[in-house]
Amino acid sequence: MRVFRNLYDWVLSWANSRYSLPALGLLAFAEASFFPVPPDVLLMAMALSVPTRSYRYALVASLGSVLGGILGYGIGWGFWDMSSHYFYQYVPGISEERFESVGQWFARYDFWTVFAAGFTPIPYKIFTIAAGVFKINLPVFVFASLVSRSLRFFLVAALFFHYGRQARELIEKYFNILSLVVLGVIVGILVVVRILS
Protein backbone atom coordinates (compact mmCIF):
# COMPACT_ATOMS: atom_id res chain seq x y z
CA MET A 1 0.00 0.00 0.00
CA ARG A 2 2.91 2.34 0.73
CA VAL A 3 4.21 1.90 -2.82
CA PHE A 4 0.78 2.69 -4.22
CA ARG A 5 0.53 5.81 -2.04
CA ASN A 6 3.95 6.97 -3.25
CA LEU A 7 2.83 6.48 -6.87
CA TYR A 8 -0.39 8.40 -6.13
CA ASP A 9 1.56 11.32 -4.63
CA TRP A 10 4.00 11.28 -7.54
CA VAL A 11 1.13 11.47 -10.03
CA LEU A 12 -0.38 14.43 -8.14
CA SER A 13 2.97 16.22 -8.16
CA TRP A 14 2.63 16.66 -11.94
CA ALA A 15 -0.54 18.76 -11.60
CA ASN A 16 1.35 22.05 -11.15
CA SER A 17 4.09 21.28 -13.65
CA ARG A 18 4.31 22.96 -17.04
CA TYR A 19 4.40 19.41 -18.41
CA SER A 20 1.10 18.48 -16.77
CA LEU A 21 -0.79 18.06 -20.07
CA PRO A 22 1.64 15.56 -21.64
CA ALA A 23 1.96 13.88 -18.23
CA LEU A 24 -1.83 13.42 -18.18
CA GLY A 25 -1.79 11.90 -21.66
CA LEU A 26 1.05 9.54 -20.75
CA LEU A 27 -0.60 8.56 -17.47
CA ALA A 28 -3.89 7.78 -19.25
CA PHE A 29 -1.95 5.77 -21.84
CA ALA A 30 -0.01 3.80 -19.23
CA GLU A 31 -2.98 3.15 -16.94
CA ALA A 32 -4.92 1.54 -19.78
CA SER A 33 -2.33 -1.21 -20.13
CA PHE A 34 -0.15 -1.55 -17.03
CA PHE A 35 0.04 1.40 -14.58
CA PRO A 36 -1.98 1.15 -11.32
CA VAL A 37 -2.97 4.82 -10.71
CA PRO A 38 -6.01 6.01 -12.71
CA PRO A 39 -5.70 9.27 -14.69
CA ASP A 40 -8.74 10.70 -12.89
CA VAL A 41 -6.41 11.67 -10.03
CA LEU A 42 -4.32 14.00 -12.19
CA LEU A 43 -7.30 15.09 -14.30
CA MET A 44 -9.17 16.28 -11.19
CA ALA A 45 -6.15 18.11 -9.80
CA MET A 46 -5.57 19.90 -13.11
CA ALA A 47 -9.25 20.72 -13.61
CA LEU A 48 -9.42 22.07 -10.08
CA SER A 49 -6.46 24.37 -10.80
CA VAL A 50 -7.82 25.68 -14.13
CA PRO A 51 -11.53 24.76 -14.52
CA THR A 52 -11.82 26.57 -17.87
CA ARG A 53 -9.43 24.03 -19.42
CA SER A 54 -11.27 21.00 -18.03
CA TYR A 55 -12.59 19.84 -21.40
CA ARG A 56 -9.15 20.07 -23.01
CA TYR A 57 -7.77 17.92 -20.21
CA ALA A 58 -10.60 15.40 -20.66
CA LEU A 59 -9.84 15.16 -24.40
CA VAL A 60 -6.16 14.44 -23.73
CA ALA A 61 -7.04 11.83 -21.08
CA SER A 62 -9.58 10.17 -23.40
CA LEU A 63 -7.23 9.92 -26.37
CA GLY A 64 -4.32 8.75 -24.22
CA SER A 65 -6.48 6.11 -22.59
CA VAL A 66 -7.83 4.75 -25.88
CA LEU A 67 -4.34 4.54 -27.36
CA GLY A 68 -3.12 2.81 -24.18
CA GLY A 69 -6.07 0.45 -24.44
CA ILE A 70 -4.93 -0.50 -27.94
CA LEU A 71 -1.48 -1.25 -26.47
CA GLY A 72 -3.16 -3.43 -23.83
CA TYR A 73 -5.10 -5.18 -26.58
CA GLY A 74 -1.83 -5.78 -28.42
CA ILE A 75 -0.21 -7.24 -25.30
CA GLY A 76 -3.08 -9.67 -24.92
CA TRP A 77 -3.25 -10.50 -28.61
CA GLY A 78 0.44 -10.99 -29.33
CA PHE A 79 2.30 -11.48 -26.06
CA TRP A 80 -0.08 -13.34 -23.75
CA ASP A 81 2.02 -16.52 -23.66
CA MET A 82 5.00 -14.52 -22.42
CA SER A 83 3.13 -12.17 -20.08
CA SER A 84 0.32 -14.28 -18.54
CA HIS A 85 2.51 -15.49 -15.65
CA TYR A 86 3.29 -11.88 -14.61
CA PHE A 87 -0.32 -10.85 -15.14
CA TYR A 88 -1.68 -13.40 -12.66
CA GLN A 89 1.18 -12.72 -10.25
CA TYR A 90 0.85 -8.92 -10.09
CA VAL A 91 -2.86 -8.26 -10.69
CA PRO A 92 -4.59 -8.84 -7.34
CA GLY A 93 -7.76 -10.90 -7.21
CA ILE A 94 -7.52 -12.30 -10.74
CA SER A 95 -7.28 -16.07 -11.17
CA GLU A 96 -7.30 -18.04 -14.40
CA GLU A 97 -10.92 -19.02 -13.71
CA ARG A 98 -12.02 -15.40 -13.28
CA PHE A 99 -10.11 -14.39 -16.36
CA GLU A 100 -11.88 -17.09 -18.37
CA SER A 101 -15.23 -15.76 -17.15
CA VAL A 102 -14.24 -12.36 -18.61
CA GLY A 103 -13.80 -14.20 -21.92
CA GLN A 104 -17.35 -15.49 -21.66
CA TRP A 105 -18.63 -11.95 -21.16
CA PHE A 106 -16.70 -10.83 -24.23
CA ALA A 107 -18.18 -13.66 -26.29
CA ARG A 108 -21.72 -12.52 -25.45
CA TYR A 109 -21.46 -8.77 -24.96
CA ASP A 110 -18.20 -7.49 -26.43
CA PHE A 111 -19.15 -3.79 -26.71
CA TRP A 112 -20.93 -3.60 -23.34
CA THR A 113 -18.16 -5.43 -21.49
CA VAL A 114 -15.56 -2.95 -22.73
CA PHE A 115 -17.93 -0.04 -22.07
CA ALA A 116 -18.53 -1.13 -18.47
CA ALA A 117 -14.79 -1.53 -17.83
CA GLY A 118 -14.03 1.83 -19.43
CA PHE A 119 -16.61 3.82 -17.50
CA THR A 120 -16.72 2.22 -14.04
CA PRO A 121 -14.03 1.76 -11.35
CA ILE A 122 -13.33 -1.76 -12.71
CA PRO A 123 -9.60 -1.86 -13.65
CA TYR A 124 -9.71 -1.02 -17.36
CA LYS A 125 -6.29 -2.54 -18.07
CA ILE A 126 -7.52 -6.04 -17.21
CA PHE A 127 -10.17 -5.76 -19.90
CA THR A 128 -7.92 -4.20 -22.55
CA ILE A 129 -5.50 -7.10 -22.21
CA ALA A 130 -8.35 -9.62 -22.02
CA ALA A 131 -9.89 -8.16 -25.19
CA GLY A 132 -6.68 -9.01 -27.03
CA VAL A 133 -6.39 -12.44 -25.48
CA PHE A 134 -9.93 -13.35 -26.52
CA LYS A 135 -9.51 -11.55 -29.85
CA ILE A 136 -12.67 -9.49 -29.82
CA ASN A 137 -13.31 -7.33 -32.86
CA LEU A 138 -10.74 -4.49 -32.75
CA PRO A 139 -13.00 -1.72 -34.19
CA VAL A 140 -15.70 -2.66 -31.63
CA PHE A 141 -13.08 -2.53 -28.87
CA VAL A 142 -11.77 0.89 -29.99
CA PHE A 143 -15.28 2.35 -30.37
CA ALA A 144 -16.45 1.06 -26.97
CA SER A 145 -13.25 2.38 -25.36
CA LEU A 146 -13.62 5.79 -27.01
CA VAL A 147 -17.25 6.15 -25.92
CA SER A 148 -16.80 4.91 -22.35
CA ARG A 149 -13.51 6.65 -21.55
CA SER A 150 -14.68 9.93 -23.09
CA LEU A 151 -17.96 9.74 -21.18
CA ARG A 152 -16.09 9.14 -17.92
CA PHE A 153 -13.47 11.88 -18.34
CA PHE A 154 -15.79 14.49 -19.87
CA LEU A 155 -18.27 13.93 -17.05
CA VAL A 156 -15.50 14.73 -14.56
CA ALA A 157 -14.48 17.75 -16.66
CA ALA A 158 -18.05 19.06 -16.84
CA LEU A 159 -18.42 18.87 -13.07
CA PHE A 160 -15.22 20.86 -12.52
CA PHE A 161 -16.04 23.32 -15.30
CA HIS A 162 -19.41 24.16 -13.75
CA TYR A 163 -18.89 23.57 -10.03
CA GLY A 164 -15.15 23.97 -9.39
CA ARG A 165 -14.03 22.92 -5.92
CA GLN A 166 -17.45 21.52 -4.98
CA ALA A 167 -17.08 19.01 -7.82
CA ARG A 168 -14.11 17.35 -6.15
CA GLU A 169 -16.16 16.59 -3.06
CA LEU A 170 -19.02 15.26 -5.18
CA ILE A 171 -16.74 13.02 -7.26
CA GLU A 172 -14.78 11.67 -4.31
CA LYS A 173 -17.99 10.92 -2.45
CA TYR A 174 -20.30 9.63 -5.18
CA PHE A 175 -18.39 8.69 -8.38
CA ASN A 176 -18.01 4.99 -7.58
CA ILE A 177 -21.66 4.75 -6.57
CA LEU A 178 -22.86 6.54 -9.70
CA SER A 179 -20.69 4.47 -12.01
CA LEU A 180 -21.88 1.26 -10.36
CA VAL A 181 -25.48 2.41 -10.87
CA VAL A 182 -24.71 2.90 -14.58
CA LEU A 183 -23.16 -0.58 -14.65
CA GLY A 184 -26.30 -1.97 -13.00
CA VAL A 185 -28.47 -0.31 -15.66
CA ILE A 186 -26.30 -1.82 -18.42
CA VAL A 187 -26.53 -5.29 -16.88
CA GLY A 188 -30.29 -4.85 -16.52
CA ILE A 189 -30.62 -3.94 -20.21
CA LEU A 190 -28.55 -6.97 -21.20
CA VAL A 191 -30.70 -9.28 -19.06
CA VAL A 192 -33.90 -7.90 -20.63
CA VAL A 193 -32.44 -8.26 -24.16
CA ARG A 194 -31.43 -11.84 -23.42
CA ILE A 195 -34.89 -12.72 -22.04
CA LEU A 196 -36.65 -11.20 -25.04
CA SER A 197 -34.35 -12.77 -27.66
Task: Describe what you observe in this structure.
The protein is an all-alpha fold. Helices cover 82% and strands 0% of the residues. It has nine helices and no strands. The protein has helices at 2-13, 20-31, 40-49, 54-78, 80-90, 96-119, 124-133, 138-163, 165-196. α4 runs antiparallel to α8 and α6 crosses α8 (138-163). It starts with a helix and ends with a helix. 34% of the residues are buried. The mean pLDDT is 82.
Layout of helices and strands:
Elements: H1 2-13, H2 20-31, H3 40-49, H4 54-78, H5 80-90, H6 96-119, H7 124-133, H8 138-163, H9 165-196
Helix pairs in contact: 2-4, 3-4, 3-8, 4-7, 4-8, 6-7, 6-8, 6-9, 8-9
What would you say about this model in short?
By secondary structure, the protein is mainly α. The chain is built from 9 helices and no strands.
Please describe the structure with a list of short key phrases separated by commas or semicolons:
single chain
Provide mean pLDDT, rounded: 82
Rg over alpha carbons: 17 Å
Q: Can you summarize the main beta sheet?
A: none
What is the end-to-end distance? 46 Å
| Overall 3D shape | globular
> What percent of residues adopt helix (DSSP H or I)?
over 70%
Sheet-strand content, in percent, reads under 5%
Order of helices and strands: HHHHHHHHH
Structural class: mainly alpha
Number of strands: 0
